[in-house]
Amino acid sequence: MPIPRRALANDLEALLRTAPERRQILRWLLAGASAPLAACGGGAEVSIGGVGSSTGSSSSDTASTVSTCTIIPEETAGPYPGDGSNYNSNGIANALSLSGIVRSDIRSSIGGATGTAAGIPLTLTLQLVNTAGNCANLAGYAIYLWHCTRDGLYSMYSTGVTGENFLRGVQQTDSNGKATFLTIFPGCYAGRMPHMHFEVYPSLASATGAANKVKTSQIAFPTATCNDVYATSGYGNSAINLAAISFASDNVFSDGTEQQMASISGTTTNGYSASLVVGIAS
């Protein structure tokens, strides 16, 4: 008697949350079974990247619900989180304690710092859904987003921008589970593919330090778009760094990017819009 497709998908998803070596084996199995098991995603603890699908969602999507979802991978926050979990040259680095950190436009510094990050505009929308509750939208959560400049530098940490705190901000998810940020297209520094970091907090009031976060992950961007952006003025170093790295050799995305890849549209002239659905168990 054939095993029901949804039951098999549930079993595989459960196994994907076990030991790392099992997860890697199951990634290969799921990759080979992607057609019949499209509903359960293609990677370990993965999020769907689209509205009701397993691919990236378009920024023009108007649907407020998704039909299938799984948990987005837990990833490293890296050495530059600015969430109170480590230090910079001035002591504990915590952008979350800054007045004004709750904002949509994260291109400029706040709290007395005056710098603004240059680069091609990018509007990013993240939609938070509950994998333990029929993919219901998660309203009232907080998402902290941060990423590097077009030169690959992180505010608060990198030489030359330690006094800045731009490209960091917090947004509360709305009734559709969505949080939108206006920022710039990130640069590429040596050893990593272009990416953004984010943390999820159960409420805006709890978004004060890393101890309260419920998920940490990263967002990837299509290589073709990165090449287009990095061919423009100001992104020259990023173009050089991108040429020396690939998703296959990236230490975060080497196990697959399908479920963390943002869907993106736009041009270098008019700017870009990107989106991703983020699944967590709540």
Q: What's the short version?
A:
This protein has 282 residues and is an alpha+beta fold. The chain is built from four helices and eleven strands, in the order ααβββββββββααββ. The two termini are 34 Å apart.
Keywords:
282 residues, alpha+beta, Protocatechuate 3,4-Dioxygenase, subunit A, 2 domains, five-stranded mixed β-sheet, 4 helices, disordered N terminus
Tell me the count of domains: 2
CATH architecture assignment of the largest domain: Sandwich
CATH class of the largest domain: Mainly Beta
Query: How confident overall, as mean pLDDT?
Result: 84
State Rg.
Answer: 18 Å
Class based on secondary structure composition and strand pairing = alpha+beta
- Given the C-alpha coordinates, what overall shape results? globular
Low-confidence segments: 1-61
DSSP strand tally: 11
Indicate the proportion of strand residues: 15-25%
The helix content, as a percent range, equals 10-25%
How far the N terminus sits from the C terminus, by CA atoms, comes to: 34 Å
The total count of helices amounts to 4
Order of helices and strands: HHEEEEEEEEEHHEE
Describe this structure in words.
The chain is α+β, with helices and mostly antiparallel strands and about 280 residues long. The protein has two domains: about 1-45, no CATH class; about 70-120 and about 140-260, Sandwich (Protocatechuate 3,4-Dioxygenase, subunit A), CATH 2.60.130. It has four helices and eleven strands. The chain has helices at about 5-15, 20-30, 225-230, 235-245; strands at about 85-90, 90-95, 120-130, 135, 140-145, 170, 180-185, 195-200, 215-220, 265, 270-280. The strands form three sheets. Strands 3, 4, 7, 10 and 11 form a five-stranded mixed beta sheet that branches. Strands 6-5-8-9 form a four-stranded antiparallel beta sheet, with no helix packed on it. It has a two-stranded antiparallel ribbon with strand order 1-2.
